[in-house]
Amino acid sequence: MTRPIAGGSGGAAGVEAALPHPGTSRPARVERVLENERLLATILLAPTVLLLGVFIAYPFVMGVWLSLSSTSVGNPGEFVGFKNFVKAWDDSIFQMAFRNTFFYTFWATIFKLVLGMWLALLLNRHFRGKRIVRAAMLLPFIVPTVLSTFAWRWMFDPTFSVLNWMLFKGGFIVTKLPFLSDGAWAMWCAIVINTWRGMPFFAITLLAGLQTINPDLHEAASLDGANGWKRFWHVTWPLLKPVTIVVVVFSIIQTFADFQLIYVLTGGGPANSTHLLATYAYQLGVATGLLGEGAAVSLFMFPVLFAVVWIQLRYLRRLEGA
Amino acid sequence: MNTSKPEDTPLSHTQVARRTFLKTAGVAAAAATGIEGILAARRAPAFAQGTKLHIVRWNDFIPEADAWLKKEGMPEASKALGAEVTLETIGFNDLQPRITAAVQSGAGADIFMLYYNWPHLYANSLVDVSDVANAVAKEQGGFYGVFEPSMKVGGKWLGMPHSIVGNAIAYRKSWFKEVGFSEFPRTWDELRKATAALKKKGKPYGQTLGHTFGDAPTWAYPLLWSFGGAETDKSGKKVAVNSKGTVDSVKYMTALWKEGSDEGGLAWDDSNNNRAFHAGDISATLNGASIYIVAKRQKDKLKDEKGEPLYLDIDHALFPLAGAVGQFPLYFSNGHGVMKYSKNQKLAKDLLRWIHKKENFEKWFQVSEGYSVAPTTEWEKHAMWDKIDKPLQMFRTAARKTRIFGYAGPSTAKSTEVYSKYIVVDMYANAASGKMKPEEAVKWAEGELKKIYEA
Q: Is residue A85 predicted with pLDDT exceeding 60?
């Protein structure tokens, strides 16, 4: 006896052979349950919903509640409305951290995009040792951020910087460069490290996108007399745009909420010059025990990130519709 | 037929089970006499078999002190208390995240090390240890003055004072001699002159003004206080930082920074100055005794420019210096807190009693060689002080005049907020780096302090 499986095409793949075996009542019940599409969908989605609920929704709701309360460590606190947000907005350290977060995210993302694209185009070519280079390129992305930032901190160390030593020995400088001891320099150092760490993600994703582009298109453009730049601008870039948008959005989200790099590199100093929203929220919530105020500072990230994701989704939908 | 099991039968006075007797007697003895009774009875109290106690402390800057605790101290305590005591040491900056996570989840170590005035921060989560603290204070000459505002909250000891890490300026004797100072400068003005001369020779003064919990505040707060500055008035409710004393101290810092200091110090953490000093890059720095102790313990490795052991050229000078309105240091006061969520609160208190029992504390105290000073005054008389090297002897009385942040008001969670946000440190950093004029830096700090103290 055969019968089609629900949703099956009715062909060979969609036909199930019923095996005669004793005690078929339970499997039959299970089958009936599984044939109910709504129930099956619920069962299959339940673990994901549970995970999202426990690890995403619950912390988020807790974060919102904390930001609206006077909770501190060991003290449940009470509802205070938007007081924590108003206090943060009026706080000069918060204002600096807010500006820094935008500056850091903007420049780090630009550098990662430009350098990542350049690297992806290079790696898309055929040369000897291509696989080794591709694997090696991923190293900054694989090494734990804390470890790699420690290494960079040593390189930028105010006293023992190997970079200063090389520049001095090479006759390029006469006094040490203030890599981490000057606020502006420290911020650019952080951007450099973030770029170094995040560039492989851009490169490998864009490379995957490049490899989906049909070489015939480039050949045709070449035959029509298009040079390298024109081929990139008129063939590669339009086809790579959807992938690029997704990568840029992911990067903005990660960079905007960056914590480890700054925490290890400068701790937000000197004089708050490198504080980001995440590091300042940590300082308030953990070091000072003001969990409500810390949550409010971190929630300032939410509307910005929400806007970024919304713009991305709209753009992608428009591309799909085009 | 009697079907009852032996333990179901009511016990007569002749039928008391041995285990029950030991348990009852042990608990009664411990309750009545505390650790004294336990030790006098030469028998571990009858805590449930397999009882574990977890204590978390920092990684000591003197590794030998941790080694003693792990290899000898805690195993001995385990035997004495009849429980398995586990000591975990973590980075000094990792303690607060651990405490916060433990308090919020209601689970974690039974005892945490507490710095400065943290009992104010975690007041709702700490057990009153006044019985332990009062007994130790009574027996050992009383605690140093800094502990009461730091670890006593609402009249209760919520932190058990454990030790003070005194600090002083470690300096190179020969280098200061080269610029005309056979002794370390006694006044702020002399320090400025000496360091200016040394910086010209490529041997600047080394000081952090970075976001680091130890050496930056222990420099900045005493500088403020010694020039007559204060965060608030005595009530702690009115900000008083914008004063002539504060402005003078910021002007002094700015001049010292440009003329005599390693300007990379804006990015230093608590270990940079140790490394810079040992490498011969700086002539002096404010630190605990660890620079000297490490130089001595690694005398074959750490040498001066003549090839002699570096420690022979190191001495310590009192900080803060004279010449302003007074000399008021901020030392690193440490204690232990028993957590309210702990199921072994009594055992935890017994461990604190064991730690502070003279013969036990003495062993740890001697290993520290003056880096950590005891919390009570009686230890100033200990014979160790006469045996250790002269440069370390100044730490003997170092803890007497130390203050805690929040001055001139009480030390509260608000003063911890100011400390945690590095507002006082950044006031100096903003001026020293040239980002703000001294008056502007003070005004900025005043604005930030008002949002905290006057809100």
A: yes
